[in-house]
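#struct-help
A.M.: can someone run this one for me? Single chain, 213 residues.
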Amino acid sequence: MPPLLHLSMSEFIHPKLFRALRAKQATPNLKLTSIPLSQKEYFELWTPKWSPKGRVFNRLEIELLRQDQPRLTRIVSKMVWLMGAICLSEDDWDVGDCQPLYDWDDLIEFVQREGNCVNPIVTEVIFKSHTIIPIYDSERKQEGRIPPQAWEISPPHWSIIFDDLISTRQGFRLKQSADWISVDIWTGKPMRREVGSGKLYVEYHDLYASKRN
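D.P.: on it. Structure tokens below:
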């Protein structure tokens, strides 16, 4: 009997794409981050440091983000093709079940439309592992310690953060947009169980939902 093959993400996404371009000079406004794809595999990306607000990025930093974008797009677009992306605008939070996008061009069109972006680029990817989260009634938060109204089972997922690369006379700059859109690649559907009724249902929410309560 032939041995079973163990497939890894490196067989789906070529390992040469995991490593980000290296800066030729210091990049004080960028940090190199590693994002898990599996228990053993990671990919790198340059992430802007957003504090203080309105930070000015030098030409080298902008070029590094711009030149490394095709590599990053190849990684994220393959993840979208495989697992799909749930795309929510600011007004779509707590939408229940919804259909993912599997086409990268459709996803970029969503970001341009809902995020008010002309030339969107990926500037951050946030990975969240499997969690079980208590859900509380926001209107009763001030009553002290109360039991949750529901529990959420949240599968591992990646949140993709975009910014707008704006052309200027001097080259390019980041818009540092505050538009709230959420693009998440889920490995499964987030489920909620109501404590009182026992009802079980799918409940997608955007990346910023916890900041609204």
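A.M.: thanks! The chain has a mean pLDDT of 85.
D.P.: also worth noting: The chain has one domain: 12-211.
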